[in-house]
Amino acid sequence: MTIAVGVLLAIMGPFGSYMNGGPVRLLAYWVGAMLLGLILYGSAYRIVSALTVCGSPRWWLALVGATLLASIPEALSTRAVAFLLWPELRSFDLSVLRWFAQTATIGVVGMAAIGFALRRPAGAAKENSALSPADEIIARLGQDVLALQVEDHYVRVHRSTRSEMVLISLGRAIDAMEVPGLRTHRSWWVASHAVVSVQGNARSMKLLLSNGVTAPVARSAVTHLRAAGLIPNG
């Protein structure tokens, strides 16, 4: 698909490139630019989608920022190659800033289009979950859960080497747990076996978990944690 788009651009010659002549050079330039864009923008999309909830405001903001960052090497590379293939371009007002602005505009528009096409908004996820059996969602939690953390309408499930987002309420997720644990905060639940150490004091306490994550402890939860033996008395 990427190569096909590059070939199409070579034939169309956008931005006046049709005037540069040489179909081989045009083809090499546009296909190369598209392949580089696939690597840069594709990587940016995957990183943003892995770190944030797809379709959320934070996701869109991060996607735009990542696109602008990816546009820097894209603009520098395509400009350098274009000047190498067509030295006559140096006589035009094609500064690095102008080239970047053009590249970034195309990148943002393209990424936004892909984002609208591939994102899974929270609203759509809710509708889908209403059609899916609750047991199917709960089954995804598994038995290797170290902690549960509320994020927007989702629960982030912390495991030993990774985490994932599940569309479920914290209460439902806690009820599905097969290992003992306690709710340390209104938005956190921690498995008893996951606690490595306690940091801070009763006024500002955190639990260090075996996967390196720190879970906050509300003041109201300190007594319950002590009664359960998760934190020492005193």
Distance between the termini: 65 Å
What is the residue-averaged pLDDT? 77
Strand content: 15-25%
| Helix run count | 8
Characterization of the model:
- By secondary structure, the chain is α+β, with helices and mostly antiparallel strands.
- Helix content is 53%, strand content 17%.
- Strand 4 (181-185) and strand 5 (188-191) form a beta hairpin.
- Helix 2 (23-51) packs antiparallel against helix 3 and helix 3 crosses helix 4 (96-118).
Short recap of the structure:
It is built from eight helices and eight strands, in the order ααααααβββαβββββα.
Ordered list of secondary-structure elements with their pairings:
Elements: H1 2-12, H2 23-51, H3 57-85, H4 96-118, H5 122-131, H6 134-139, E1 147-151, E2 154-158, E3 163-166, H7 170-176, E4 181-185, E5 188-191, E6 195-201, E7 204-209, E8 214-217, H8 219-227
Antiparallel strand pairs: 1-2, 1-5, 2-3, 4-5, 6-7, 7-8
Looking at this protein, list some descriptive labels:
234 residues; alpha+beta; three-stranded antiparallel beta sheet; 8 helices; 8 strands; elongated
